[in-house]
């Protein structure tokens, strides 16, 4: 059992390191995607960006888009299988 | 007279064993929890019903030639059903909250501590006479801490098929019990002030980012952790169907009829593993205990990680959202929201908790891949 | 020249046998009845088309490697398709009328007399040279009297697979012919006065009763008649999905896409059993004759039982509703309503006939269970 | 054949007895459920019951609920597969 | 240390081969074309994703026990998936335009010249060292000229399973490229005057004709070309479900959930055949080249046939509609309409092109049947 | 290879002949169906026929039924899987 315990300990260490490493890599991946999308915006997005800048001040208030997104998310997830 | 004897022998009465009666009561309890308490009814109703059917003497539902026998061998033994569920869940999941705030992935990582710590615990249980969990068994049990039903079923079908029934029941039960298990842990580890912390609004995520995200996840997985690709790959496939916007008919089928059909049969097949000889063992008690421990540790690890991140971050991170890292989508995020509202009635944490919540799904799929690679 | 010869040899023309031509005509007749006369089109169109496909020389639809070969072996041989149909039908059935007036179950019981009497008749047919029905064959034929397609297919696939095509066709044909077969029998056995009898309004049934009903049916079945649980169990499962109210997405899938898909393949696979060598036999004539007899006796037994019950009951029981006990849901109930309205234009018997009608489904599933236990 | 005939006769007798026994048991089951539900009504049902009692006199007329139930049943069964 | 080594060995990094990397790029290109360029996304997204999954070292998606292994063997090896797609497509196809103007069938026949000419070309390619196409291989490749995905997959699974991936990708790619490949050929072979030609309005087709049409097609097929009945039979079955008007629930399921589900798995399974050792061969280049040739020849043959028919017909036949005879429903018909509008902005050819377009589907299914009979 | 070439040539000839023969037969089939349907019209169709005759003159204009049929066909085919 000591054998198994040390193996379990090792698994604990290796497992957590890998999980963190993997998801940290993914953080990098997401940031790269964001940078890529910002660098090569499609036309619509450029339009959106301009629009967003003008709306930036107003965004401290509750954004109706976000409210809609929340209620959609809640709705969708209520119907999730798990 | 002869016919009457045959008929009597063909009733269940002379064949019932006490274990079967107990297992049928277990099935009824699952149905009760599902219907009256609304605990994960989509899975627990088929599982509970499957438990009833499989424990009937002579009906032969789970024996060769019986319906549940076929369903189990076609869907669970092969791992096909959990993968199809994952595809459907992928087609239902919106990663916006995570893409807007990718550091939340660290919370999804921290919560997997519950899995690996439980591995340790399962081996220690072997000190008690009656328990003899192999490392494979321990891994399949520990994944309960991932709070993700299909992942647990997939891993158990590969590593410890004889424990599958108990593991699946424990996984779904604890997922249903999130609103009861998590809040005390969350409150014990956070101060009133911390729970009141508001978080900065999330930015809007573009369609392109949402399309590239599943591709990035897939690429990282297949390069660094190919053993996790069955789960992660089907999840990303479902998500790509949803986000690409050009195959809505496939996406709709994946997240509706297909996942519903598979859910019905997955549940029945899991239920068919709740036979007395497999379930009424001391090991089941161990599994239930370890599952609860895994869940609790995962929650605590998520909350503590969020506290650490809050220290080092310039933007506020409410430590409560760490609890959502165990996954149990979307229940855990809703619990975070509820506990947050108790502290500050104007502080809606739901969207902020969705990030770690979906991160937890990826995290436990990754953890399953690691266990498959190292133990399987 | 060689290619041309190969091509000629690869047309059906030099290979046709007269039997195949006749069977293709039979298939066309089934399609005609389904499309023009609207006789059970959901089943008779796939069956008729399957009969066309299977009787083409060289196409090999029903030979190893052909589509219908796979469908038959996966779905019918295993009994999976009829069980899935039963689940879907369970998810579509409303037992309110039966729960409100449970004595109607006795009518569903009486109508099964058609099944058991026909058993007797099938053995007597053996006196005629050319007939050699075993007791298994006789049982599979007699179940036609149950007026329930999936039950007939399920039992035939277990007891007499080589007669399955003829039995299924007979079962669905007679179910379609209910409006022609039943009224004369109903009128012959009842007086004008009896047919005018109004019945007391049914009480409203609570949601809880509707949820507990399938559980009660399941429990009784698994204790007293486990051999009937495949059919009854899946039926109750479907009904529970419908009534519990917490898994509507599963219930909707079970009663729509899933049952539709299975119906298509079940029909084609049954049709693939309509090959000349299996169908163009004197036995098929016997099966058709016995099926009609079973149907008639069942109808008569139901009506007579209702007359007896009316004698001993303080509330009126219109004897017509007994005819609905053969099942053939919902056709038989509508026929009862129609015949009732002819006698008394203000007397709507539809809801009252739904009770015995759904009781007939349970009754014939129980009868199938008995036959499986005693003969199978 | 005489053998088979007597067996068929036996099956006829045993079968009908069992069918009747089984469905009679089920009548008992349904009545028990009704009694159980009456004994332990949920709050809504208690409210309904009170409401029902006050409506009892009116119930000799055609109840619109029943009419709705009939049309629903007809509709559902028209779409039944069998 | 040991664990770390195991972990390193369990990443894909030390196992990647250059071929797999290339194939994953191919998969990404397919996804790009599908999502950004909207080229046949319903098939190319699953195919592209399947290509990614199957080329991951160690993930074992396509090895025994992997998801795609099962899907391939259950659905493609048996020919079941293409047949179910054909059933669904049949349930979506409206033959009115063809029934109103049956001579359009000749255009669907002429366009099959692309198939049979390519057969010739494939054998000639064998003169180049490195190519060794058998007649079976050549037939499976030539069917790309039929511009019909499921037909190509069905035939390839029977005659040349090892080329299936490349053939399916070529078939769907060229179907997507119809708007680029066809217009130059169409314009080269017709004069401005011819392209301006208006056509007489089509008569209204009665419901009865639409019901009898699939029956007639089926009858002719099973008498004269039984080897084509799997494809044509399922197509006619789907069409009959649609047109008969009495089984709308089956028709809806066939053209929605069922075909969607099959499409997802068909695509993934085809993608799983895009492994480096099968795809990165000189034969693939040959297949792509031959496919383009077949497509071009088919288009030209259709247009030329239409010109001939226009000469001998009293009603105008715009030669452009001949191009639609290759099938590629409904893309080719829309291309005809567009090219026609360029010449004459008031001349809508869409409905007139639908006739040869659906005729092309039948034509290539017939051609597949001939190849199966003579070469298979 | 000469062998294979001649076989391919033969296949080309036989194949095109059979395809044309088959689809020509089908033309005959469709025309027979049309004749059959005209010979034995159902009641509705007879009514339609009369209606159609009276409308025959107007039919040189764009028929709204056809327009509807086209847009339906386009719609259906846009949703086609292939
Ligand atoms: Na998790
Ligand atoms: Na019945
Ligand atoms: Na074609």
Shape of chain A: rod-shaped
Helix-strand category of chain A: mainly alpha
Largest interface, counted with CB-CB under 8 A? A-B, 48 and 72 residues
Distinct small molecules: sodium ion
pLDDT under 50 segments of chain B (min length 5)?
Answer: none
Core attributes:
heterohexamer; A: 82 residues; mainly alpha; 80% helix; rod-shaped; B: 376 residues; 20 helices; binds sodium ion
SSE topology sketch:
The complex is a heterohexamer, with three copies of chain A (about 80 residues) and three copies of chain B (about 375 residues).
Chain A: H1 2-39, H2 43-55, H3 64-78
Chain B: H1 2-10, H2 18-35, H3 41-54, H4 67-76, H5 80-92, H6 96-100, H7 104-110, H8 113-125, H9 135-142, H10 149-159, H11 164-176, H12 178-189, H13 192-196, H14 207-224, H15 229-244, H16 248-271, H17 276-279, H18 282-312, H19 331-343, H20 350-374
Helix pairs in contact in B: 2-3, 3-16, 4-16, 5-10, 5-15, 5-16, 7-18, 7-20, 8-9, 8-18, 9-10, 10-11, 10-20, 11-18, 12-18, 12-19, 14-15, 15-16, 19-20
The structure holds sodium ion (3 copies).
Question: What do these coordinates show?
Answer:
Chain A has 82 residues and is mostly helical. Helix content of chain A is 80%, strand content 0%. Chain A has three helices and no strands. The longest helix of chain A has 38 residues, at 2-39. Chain A is rod-shaped and about 65 Å long. Residues 53-64 of chain A have low confidence and may be disordered. With 376 residues, chain B is mainly α. In chain B, 72% of the residues lie in helices and 0% in strands. In chain B, helix 7 packs antiparallel against helix 18, helix 12 crosses helix 18 (282-312) and helix 14 packs antiparallel against helix 15. Chain B is globular and about 85 Å long. Classes of the chains: A mainly alpha (82), B mainly alpha (376). Chains in contact: A-B, A-E, B-C, B-D, B-E, C-D, C-E, C-F, E-F. Chains A and B meet through helix 1, helix 2 and helix 3 of A and helix 5, helix 6, helix 7, helix 8 and helix 9 of B. Residues 146-148, 326-327, 360-361, 363-364 of chain C line the site of one sodium ion.
């Amino acid at each position: 059992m000591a054998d198994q315990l040390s193996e379990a300990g090792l698994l604990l260490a290796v497992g957590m390191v890998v999980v963190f490493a993997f998801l940290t890599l993914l953080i990098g991946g997401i940031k790269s995607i964001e940078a890529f999308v910002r660098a090569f915006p499609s036309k619509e997005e450029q339009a959106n960006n301009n629009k967003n800048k003008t709306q930036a001040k107003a965004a401290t208030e509750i954004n109706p888009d976000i409210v809609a997104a929340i209620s959609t998310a809640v709705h969708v997830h209520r119907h999730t299988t798990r | 007279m002869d016919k009457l004897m045959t008929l009597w022998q063909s009733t269940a009465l002379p064949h019932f064993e006490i274990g079967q009666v107990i297992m049928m009561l277990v099935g009824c309890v699952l149905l009760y929890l599902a219907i009256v308490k609304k605990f994960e009814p989509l899975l627990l109703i088929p599982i509970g019903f499957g438990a009833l059917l499989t424990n009937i003497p002579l009906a032969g539902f789970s024996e060769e030639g019986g319906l549940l026998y076929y369903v189990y061998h076609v869907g669970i033994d092969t791992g096909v059903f959990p993968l199809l569920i994952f595809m459907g869940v992928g087609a239902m999941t919106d990663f916006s909250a995570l893409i807007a705030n990718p550091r939340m992935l660290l919370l999804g990582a921290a919560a997997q501590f519950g899995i690996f710590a439980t591995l340790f615990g399962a081996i220690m249980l072997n000190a008690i006479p009656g328990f003899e969990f192999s490392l494979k068994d321990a891994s399949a049990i520990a994944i309960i801490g991932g709070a993700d039903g299909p992942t647990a079923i997939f891993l158990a079908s590969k590593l410890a098929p004889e424990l599958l029934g108990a593991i699946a029941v424990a996984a779904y039960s604890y997922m249903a019990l999130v609103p009861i298990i998590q809040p005390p842990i969350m409150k014990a580890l956070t101060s009133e002030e911390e729970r009141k912390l508001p978080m900065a609004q999330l930015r809007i995520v573009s369609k392109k980012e949402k399309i590239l995200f599943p591709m990035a996840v897939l690429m990282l997985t297949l390069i660094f952790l190919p053993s996790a690709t069955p789960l992660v790959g089907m999840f990303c496939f479902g998500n790509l169907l949803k986000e690409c916007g050009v195959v809505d008919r496939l996406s709709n089928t994946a997240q509706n009829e297909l996942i519903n059909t598979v859910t019905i049969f997955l549940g029945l097949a899991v239920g068919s593993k709740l036979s007395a000889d497999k379930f009424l063992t001391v090991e089941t008690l161990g599994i239930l205990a370890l599952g609860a421990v895994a869940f609790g540790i995962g929650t605590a690890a998520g909350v503590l990680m969020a506290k650490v991140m809050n220290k080092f971050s310039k933007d506020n991170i409410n430590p409560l959202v760490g609890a959502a890292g165990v996954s149990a989508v979307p229940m855990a995020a809703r619990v975070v929201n509820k506990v947050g509202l108790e502290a500050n009635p104007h502080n809606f944490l739901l969207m902020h908790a969705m990030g770690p919540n979906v991160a937890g799904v990826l995290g436990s799929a990754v953890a399953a891949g690691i266990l498959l690679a190292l133990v399987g």
